[in-house]
Amino acid sequence: MAYKCIGIMSGTSLDGVDVALVDVSVDGDRIHFLHGISSPFSDSLRGSLMDLTRNETVNKEELVRMDALMGHLLSDVVEQLLAESGMAAKDILLIASHGQTIGHYPEKREQFGHSTAFTLQIGDGDILATRIGIPVVSDFRRRDMAIGGEGAPLIPLLDTFLFQSREKNRCSLNIGGIANITVLPADGSTATAFDTGPGNCLSDLVIERLIGQSLRFDPGGENARRGKVHDEILTRAMEDAYFQQLPPKSTGREYFDEKFLDFLLGMGRDIPFVDMVATVSCLTPKSIADALHRFVPVNHFPTELIVSGGGVQNLFFMEKLRAFLPEMNVVSSGEYGIDPDFKEAMGFALMGYRTMKGLPSSIPAVTGAGSGQILGKVSLTKEAFRFFQENGGNENPD
Ligand SMILES: Nc1ncnc2c1ncn2[C@@H]1O[C@H](COP(=O)(O)OP(=O)(O)O)[C@@H](O)[C@H]1O
Ligand SMILES: [Mg+2]
User: Are 374 and 254 in a shared domain?
Assistant: First the structure.
């Protein structure tokens, strides 16, 4: 027995939105991919979102408007997915939508006598529920943060279901804007997971800055592959406080941002620009390998690295990962039948289902919160409300 659910993910790369139609097992512990759409953001939409995520001061009306607009844009992509897969709204149990992160600040700050962490994902779930006519679960990160967690990463539960093996220690790596790992011990103990640092974000920025405005990323990593990595700059970059911090930890593009890029570029003013592209890009595989060596206990050290996210397509990243981690077999999640572009969207579909079942999806050891939480906010539909009106409070519904 399985239910059809839709998961929506748009990550910090601001490249677009990935939507996956999946079957989720009735117990909420197995998932099967059926169909997916990746819808790229237009240059102007990307520009508006970029301004909201990187500027210290933002236009208030723009922020509020984009929350509603993203609700509509996500609805458009879901409509396209339903049409392509020949499904009607009544065939789908629920939509789970991560939303577009505008800011993620897991470090607590003290103000007005309260110490709190904070995060904001936009893309109004009520608009999705109203337009599509399917209940929506959205805003997955806040419940965990409300009890002191990092609110991230949340995908480790899916990684556990998909990849944990009794035969060997494995590690799942997602290279989105930020890179994160989930270590899956063969002895069956709980996964550990955290953000290792930059994924594609610095590589995308350096390409835009040094190669040209029309390129959003380094295709296949070809520019980085032409350059020579400057070890001294790389070593100094690796001294950054985030790489020293003990897990659990999470980060965002507001940390590995243009200022961080300026700092890196400032150290290499007189080196050829392709060398700078290679050096900046190399921080991604270097910090991933370093985090594994530094923070994973020897008895859990993985022999296999299963990579997902857009970064799989950057051959420079994959080659450097293999060079820095010669003891590990580095493969795409595609080798396990999981399309690297849709793993995270699948994860949110799974979590949305679990929320409606009243099951927790966060792993306390991963987010640092005190207990696993039932995540997200629910936007019901007219039909779902009617069901509760007709059946609610009736002690003998049969
Ligand atoms: N053909 C490619 N070659 C190199 N990098 C790519 C390619 N396609 C996508 N990417 C990278 O993947 C990123 C998008 O990855 P994604 O997993 O969607 O990240 P996010 O979850 O942050 O949105 C792009 O910004 C780009 O850096
Ligand atoms: Mg993306």
Answer: no
- Which residue CA neighbors atom 8 of ligand 1 most closely? 310
- On whether both 205 and 350 belong to a single domain, the answer is no
Report the residue among 155, 314, 320, 333 best suited for mutation to probe ligand 1: largest number of ligand atoms under 8 A from its CB.
314
pTM, rounded to two decimals? 0.94
Residue 131: give the domain boundaries. Answer: 2-155+343-391
CATH number, domain of 265, equals 3.30.420.40
Residue 101, both tokens: 């992160």
Our count of domains for the chain comes to 2
Q: Where are the beta strands (DSSP E) in the chain?
A: 2-10, 16-25, 31-40, 94-111, 114-122, 136-138, 170-175, 178-184, 192-198, 304-308, 329-332, 377-379
53 ligand 1 Cβ < 6 A: no
pLDDT digits (tens, 9 = 90+) for 41-81: 999 999 999 999 887 889 999 999 999 999 999 999 999 99
182 lines ligand 1 (CB under 6 A): no
